[in-house]
Amino acid sequence: MKKLKVNTGRKYEIIIDRGIINHCGEYIKKVSSPTRIAVVTDSNVHALYSQSVITSLKQSGFIVSEFVFKAGETSKNFRTIEAIYSHLADNNITRKDMILALGGGVTGDMAGFAAATYLRGIEFVQVPTSLLAQVDSSVGGKTGYDIPQGKNLVGAFWQPSVVLIDPDTLSTLPERYLNDGMAEVIKYGCIKSAGLFRLLKKGRDELDIENIIHRCVSIKRDVVQKDEKESGERKLLNFGHTIGHALEKIYEYKKLSHGEAVAIGMVMMTKASERDGYSPKGTANKIAELCEMYNLPTHDDSEVRDIAFAAQSDKKSSGHNIDVVILKSIGDATVSTMDLRDFQQYIDVPEEV
Ligand code: NAD
Ligand code: ZN
């Protein structure tokens, strides 16, 4: 078992342990005393893990209800949020009660947003079951949902009471989602830890995944603690994401998964910073080699003009400026702001460089 303390708006713990999903109730009892717990989960995760979680909650004496939505990003909208609110009201969830988010990032983001807004805010617990949710979305307090104009355009910062991470749940996660999460793991290595980057070169079969999750969560914890609302340090977490988001958008969220798009973004950004002498020669290749080990793409044929255009409408760009993350070396990153008009030229690196 590994534990981490987070001290943002509220203090809470992240506990990583194999099989912890069967003991949710006991851990919740240590941090809070709700009467009722509403479990929010998606259809896939429901079939696999709801029974264990609900049994544990009932054994600890909680009154449990469950809300299940159709798995997938297309459910991450206000209609689902509204249905969650109805479920909470119908099941007499009060200010003293709690929501438990059981699932990937889609579940955590929506359940967290419902918790942030229902009755002006109730407690919630994160039980992330995808690698992406375990190393990224369950930590940091960002919650929200998508609207037709863009992903995650509505949201709130709302911290969980505790995060319970069970690495064993990854045994059922489809391969593509596992690789998706690995892109974020590689990102953490790139921006903050040469040691983690080196470890990843061993390949997935040799990794101690509990240790990897712990390292990633510690990095994210440290970053969000320094900068909860993303005014400085937290921008580092966007490494590869400006181009990544642009590519996802170009392909209308169909051809590339988030992690795949981010992998391409990390390599492209580093090629650009290498050309300008900010990153040592060979850095982009090292990242590309690692991404390939985890079946992540490192190149895309989109025109830089289209990427730059899509990046302009990214909500993370502010006014005429765009923040780019530059690796001074693997494990050491910095943020630089540039004029949006220069961005297209910046990322336009001929293939042979
Ligand atoms: P997801 O929640 O849709 O999960 C991916 C798929 O895996 C789903 O089909 C799900 O049913 C399935 N699944 C999850 N756990 C499983 C398990 N243990 N076994 C079998 N199947 C399982 O998506 P995701 O990739 O986890 O997260 C992506 C979402 O996270 C996006 O909406 C993104 O915006 C959000 N996100 C949020 C933050 C944040 O800081 N809040 C950060 C990064 C990403
Ligand atoms: Zn990401």
Number of helices, counting only DSSP H or I runs of 4 residues or more: 13
CATH superfamily of the largest domain: Dehydroquinate synthase-like - alpha domain
Oligomer: single chain
Order of helices and strands: EEHEHEHEHEHEEEHHHHHHHEEH
The CATH class of the largest domain is identified as Mainly Alpha
Under the CATH scheme, the architecture of the largest domain is: Up-down Bundle
Major sheet strand order: 1-2-9-6-5-3-4
Binding site for NAD(+): 105-109, 129-130, 142, 151, 169-172
Cofactor: Co(2+); Zn(2+); NAD(+)
Catalytic activity: 7-phospho-2-dehydro-3-deoxy-D-arabino-heptonate = 3-dehydroquinate + phosphate
Organism: Ruminococcoides intestinihominis
Strand and helix map with partners:
Elements: E1 2-7, E2 11-16, H1 24-31, E3 36-42, H2 43-59, E4 63-69, H3 78-90, E5 98-103, H4 105-117, E6 123-128, H5 131-137, E7 142-147, E8 150-157, E9 162-165, H6 175-192, H7 194-200, H8 209-226, H9 241-250, H10 258-275, H11 283-293, H12 304-312, E10 321-329, E11 332-339, H13 340-347
Parallel strand pairs: 2-9, 3-4, 3-5, 5-6, 6-9
Antiparallel strand pairs: 1-2, 7-8, 10-11
How does this structure look, described?
Zn(2+) binds at residues 184, 241, 258. This is 3-dehydroquinate synthase. Pfam families: DHQ_synthase, DHQS_C. Its cofactor is Co(2+); Zn(2+); NAD(+). Residues 181-317 form the 3-dehydroquinate synthase C-terminal domain. With 353 residues, the chain is an alpha/beta fold. The protein has 2 domains: 2-172, Rossmann fold (3-Layer(aba) Sandwich), CATH 3.40.50.1970; 175-347, Dehydroquinate synthase-like - alpha domain (Dehydroquinate synthase-like, alpha domain, Up-down Bundle), CATH 1.20.1090. Helices cover 44% and strands 21% of the residues. It has helices at 24-31, 43-59, 78-90, 105-117, 131-137, 175-192, 194-200, 209-226, 241-250, 258-275, 283-293, 304-312, 340-347; strands at 2-7, 11-16, 36-42, 63-69, 98-103, 123-128, 142-147, 150-157, 162-165, 321-329, 332-339. The strands form 3 sheets. A 7-stranded mixed β-sheet has the order 1-2-9-6-5-3-4, with helices on both faces. A two-stranded antiparallel ribbon has the order 7-8. α9 crosses α10 (258-275). The N and C termini lie far apart (45 Å). The model has no long low-confidence stretch (mean pLDDT 94). The chain binds nicotinamide-adenine-dinucleotide and zinc ion (ZN). Zinc ion binds next to α10. Zinc ion (ZN) binds at residues 184, 241, 258, 262.
